[in-house]
C-alpha cells in the first residue's frame, strides 16, 4: 500500500518552479515524478497552481507542494498503488472542481505519475511494461528544430517546425537521421547569416522573416544531409494559431498580414503544395475557432494529419465534442493538460476508438523526467513530440526510447493493469 507521499519544489528547463513528488510504498519502494509546464497553454487546461505574490515572480509552487504533503498524502495513505484508476479518482474527488484548481493539476499529476512509477518499481518491471499492453512499438518522433511563436523571440508566428523520420530501419536509425539533419540545419542557418541560439524546446530560433523561410531551411537541410524530403525525413508544424487569432475581428494577424480563416487555410494549402514533405499540421486555427478547424479538416484531412491541441486540451469531454464536429484527425496528448494518468489514458482510447491518431507531447517547460517516453510506448501512441535532439530535458526522452528499443528486442511478460473497459458515453 501507499505508505507516504512527499512533494518538493524543484525547477524546470526554463528556470521556473515546478513540483516533484516521491511516493513510498509499504514495501519500501519509491516512485518519483517531475511535472512539466507549458507556455502556449490552452484555455481549458487543468489549472497549474502557482503561489502568486513576489517570490520567484509569483510562480512558486509551495501551495501545490503543501496540498500534496497534507491533503493528498493523508487521503491516499493505505491505498493500493496498483489501482491507478482509484488513486486518480480519489484525488479528483478530493479536489472537487472541474479544472483541478483547488489542489492544482501540478500537485495531482505529480502524485499520479509517481504512484505509477512506485507500482512499477515494486513489481521490478519497467514503467512502459507496467502501464503497457501487448505488441509494444517504438513511436515515430517529431522534433521541433526551429522554434517560433511563444517559444522564441523572433519574427516567426508558427510556433514549431518539426522534422520526423519516415523510412527507417530501427528507432535508432531514424533518430540518427534526425541528429544528422539537426547539425546540418545549424550550418544552413549560419550560412544564411542568422544566429543559431536555441529556443525553449532546443530548436534554433533564428530571426527569420517568415515561416516559409523556415520551411525552406528545413527542406534544404534535409537535402544537404543526404536525405530525400518526404522519404527519409518529413516535415510537420504546430501553428499554435490561438496566439495569432484576433478575437475581435475573428481573423488571423499573421506575420504582418491579416488573413480570414479561409485565406489562412489557402495559405497552409500553398505550403503543402510547395513542400509536399509536410505530413502533419497542429492547431491551424485558434482554440475558439472550431468551425474553421472542422472546415479545414474536411478539405485537407484526407491528405494530411491535422492535430488538435489547444481546442481539446487532452480532455475526454472536449475530444468527444471535437470528434462529433469532425474536427482534426489526430489528438495531441499532454498529461498535465488533464492532470491524471487515468484520464490521459481515457483520452487516448477515446481518440483511437474513433479512428484518430494520437501524438504524445512534452511541454515547452520540461524536466529530466522521461515519463512520457515510457508512456508513449506503453500506450502504443505511435507518435511523440519532445523537441529537438538537443538539451537534456528533450533528449532524455529519446535516450529512454533508445534504451526501451534495446529491451524490447527480448520477449517480456505482459502486465496490463489498464483493461480496456472505460465507458465513453
Ligand atoms: P506548450 O507548447 O508546452 O508551450 O504549451 C506545446 C504545444 O503547443 O504543443
Ligand atoms: Zn500545440
TrEMBL record:
* GO biological process, any: glycolytic process
The chain positions of domain Enolase C-terminal TIM barrel read: 135-418
Binding-site residues for (2R)-2-phosphoglycerate, renumbered to this chain? 159, 334, 363-364, 385
Q: Does the keyword Metal-binding apply?
A: yes
Cofactor binding remark = Binds a second Mg(2+) ion via substrate during catalysis.
Where does the source fall among the domains of life? Bacteria
Q: Which CDD domains match?
A: enolase
Catalytic positions are 201 (proton donor), 334 (proton acceptor)
Q: Where, in this chain's numbering, is Mg(2+) bound? A: 238, 282, 309
User: Where along this sequence does the record place binding of substrate?
Assistant: 151, 160, 282, 309, 361-364, 385
Question: What are its E.C. numbers?
Answer: 4.2.1.11
Q: What class of enzyme is it?
A: lyase
Q: Where in the cell is it found?
A: Cytoplasm; Secreted; Cell surface
* Keyword annotations: Cytoplasm, Glycolysis, Lyase, Magnesium, Metal-binding, Secreted
Q: What is its main location?
A: cytoplasm
Q: Which GO terms describe its molecular function?
A: magnesium ion binding; phosphopyruvate hydratase activity
Q: Which family does it belong to?
A: Belongs to the enolase family.
Per the entry, what this protein does is: Catalyzes the reversible conversion of 2-phosphoglycerate (2-PG) into phosphoenolpyruvate (PEP). It is essential for the degradation of carbohydrates via glycolysis.
HAMAP family listed in its UniProt record: Enolase
- Its recorded name reads Enolase
